[in-house]
Structures are given as C-alpha cells and as structure tokens.
Design a protein that fits this description.
0% strand; mainly alpha; 144 residues; single chain
Amino acid sequence: MEAMDSPQPYDFSAAKRKRSPSIEVPTPPVKVAKTQSNHLQINYLVRQYSEILPLIASDDSLPAILSLVGDYDGVLHRHESMAGNLGAKPLGPILIKRFERLFIEPPKILKSHGKEGSTVSWLDVVEFARNKPEQFNLEKMRDG
C-alpha cells in the first residue's frame, strides 16, 4: 500500500473577512453637554407634572413599582429635582424671604440707567457687589 499524504489543515483565518480596516481610524470623542464645572444642572424650580410622586411601598405590586420607576426615570431624564417631585419643599424661596427680612425696607434706587419701574431686591444688590466689586459703591446717607 502506498503511504497516503496526510491532509493539510485548512487555514480559516485567510478566508475570514476583517472586521475593521487595517488602518486604525480614531473614534470621535463622545460629546458631553458643557457646563461651567462640567456638572449636571438640575432644574429645581420647574416640574412637568403638578402631582407629587409617591414613594415605593413594600406592598406595591410589580406593575405599580415598574410604573413608579418609570416616573422616577422621567424626572431624572428631564433634569428635575427628585426631592421636589416627591413633595419636599424647596429651601431656596424660604432662604430668600428670610434674607430680605434682614433689611428694614427695600433698597432705594437713586439713579436708574435702565427701565423705569424696575424693582431691585437686596439679593440683587449682594450678587452685583460680589460679581462687580469695582462698580459697587456703598454710600452712607444722612439719615443712617
């Protein structure tokens, strides 16, 4: 009997199609919304729905839990305050009212270079003094 040549193994790598081009193409960077400090901005003042979201209870059914999780997810995707949608009172307006009570009366506008009848709060004065200290002039009046 003649010696049979042993079959050579087939090279599958040569027949395979390449997944990507041989030249590497750099992938474009993922675009992220830019903010001043690259933090997520949450809108604490606006809510899409006026009703308060309930908390998940231990005796809720699975469809009810999934519905609430969907509602919670919607709040997060709209960049709204989860605490506000769950019924918490916002602290900002309370603090502003208490800050205004530190002063006896609203600020007096001696010269107005803007619109007539525009109102200025003490918070506006403090923010202006902080942002533009070189333009802020504090003068003492005769009556105190």
